[in-house]
Design goal:
Blueprint lengths: L1 H25 L4 H6 L6 E7 L3 E2 L4 E11 L2 E11 L4 E7 H21 L6 E7 L5 E7 L2 E7 L8 E3 L3 H19 L1
Antiparallel strand pairs: 1-3, 2-3, 3-4, 4-5, 6-7, 7-8, 8-9
Helix pairs in contact: 3-4
Length: about 180
Amino acid sequence: MNKIVYLIIILTTSLNTFSQTKHAEKTQISKMDKFTSKTGSIIKYIDYSLTNIKGVYDVSETKVRKIIAGESVGYFFQISKEGKYDTKNASIEYSDLLEVIKAIGKLKQESVQDIMSDGNYLENKFVTDDGFQIGYYISNEKLNWYIKLEKYGSGNTIFLRDLSEIEMILIDAKNKVDTLKQ
């Protein structure tokens, strides 16, 4: 009898811990939310529009957002995709933007080799701390590039027509931030 009670306690504790871990993952605060949650200070947003992303199925708006929170200044590259019922957004902090640009170069190199793989499906992607993803999948020997704006939910993926287009937009965003920092 003691073994059964002991087993029930272990299972209950394990399930509770797993549930709390999953909840913590979903409620993780983004870098932008952390930056803008400074209480007791004035927060100013300034947007600078960039070229829109023309995806296979839709067009998404891009911009650089400068945020001044008290004495601190932050820069974020933002992508907004309007859906049927809501708008999906990604806010990529400047240091993450630099990492995304580097990752695209590496992904492009790997895609050349991966397209020759003999698997039925292959996916390769880069993911930021805030859940923004850029990558590709290969299905039926066809290479398809995509961006996923948010970790959770549906309707948050942009299928790219041309990778070079998003590369140029990301570089333009980096250059805009560099200019604003001067």
